[in-house]
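Figure 6 in text form: structure in, sequence out.
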């Protein structure tokens, strides 16, 4: 699993979206949940709430203590052992947030088989990545990392630790926008694309042209907003102020 984790860590940005596309194409979404429009609407509402929870968790993590998860030359790497902020609540809070995003998107799609396979597959892949990271951190930080593991859960959120682990820290909204805007954009595009796919799959051709146009327009606006934020980021708009 560590070897698999190292491979997934290197190629996850390309591999994970491709896996989702393949799963969506292999398992079309159902028209309704148990032929019940209200139940279908409730399911979609829960899916959106799960996605928002994932984004909120990621924002909380980044806002208090950002950690670079990209590694070094696409390999697992860490210069420091970060235990502050949300990393004092959970050892992998960003990955928990990501899993909430994936769970919400799969639930929004609605195919029961896809939900089970998708969540199970991504849970396995993230567990492999975590094992690979843990092996590196143990080699690098030794007893300090072992002590950290004893105090902080791998996946659960020990919220009782939040006050202590964020003591003296200020929430940095500028950093949240600058570091996590692409994740928010990807989540919004995934939601819009899933809804378009559902309409195109089970609605008669031409019946929902207006709705599809609105969703397509919304997707274009998300793309424009993302490009604007990316441009401003390159211009230094979201850099942390330098203390004088």
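Output sequence:
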């Amino acid at each position: 699993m560590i070897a698999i984790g190292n491979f997934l860590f290197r190629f996850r940005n390309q591999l994970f979206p491709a896996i989702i596309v393949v799963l969506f194409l292999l398992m079309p979404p159902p028209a309704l949940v148990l032929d019940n429009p209200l139940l279908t609407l409730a399911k979609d509402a829960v899916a959106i709430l799960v996605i928002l929870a994932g984004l909120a968790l990621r924002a909380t993590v980044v806002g208090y203590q950002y950690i670079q998860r990209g590694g070094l030359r696409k390999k697992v790497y860490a210069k420091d052992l970060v235990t502050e902020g949300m990393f004092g609540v959970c050892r992998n809070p960003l990955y928990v947030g990501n899993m909430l995003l994936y769970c919400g998107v799969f639930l929004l799609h609605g195919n029961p088989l896809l939900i089970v396979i998708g969540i199970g597959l991504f849970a396995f892949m993230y567990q492999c990545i975590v094992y690979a990271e843990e092996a590196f951190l143990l080699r690098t930080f030794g007893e300090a990392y072992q002590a950290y593991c004893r105090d902080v859960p791998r996946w659960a959120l020990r919220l009782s630790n939040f006050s202590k682990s964020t003591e003296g820290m200020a929430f940095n909204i500028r950093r949240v926008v600058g570091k996590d805007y692409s994740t928010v954009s990807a989540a919004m595009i995934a939601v819009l694309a899933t809804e378009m796919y559902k309409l195109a799959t089970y609605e008669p051709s031409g019946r929902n042209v207006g709705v599809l146009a609105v969703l397509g327009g919304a997707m274009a606006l998300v793309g424009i907003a993302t490009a604007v934020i990316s441009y401003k980021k390159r211009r230094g708009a979201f850099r942390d102020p330098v203390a004088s």
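Caption detail: Residues 2-170 form a domain with the Four Helix Bundle (Hemerythrin (Met), subunit A) fold (CATH 1.20.120).
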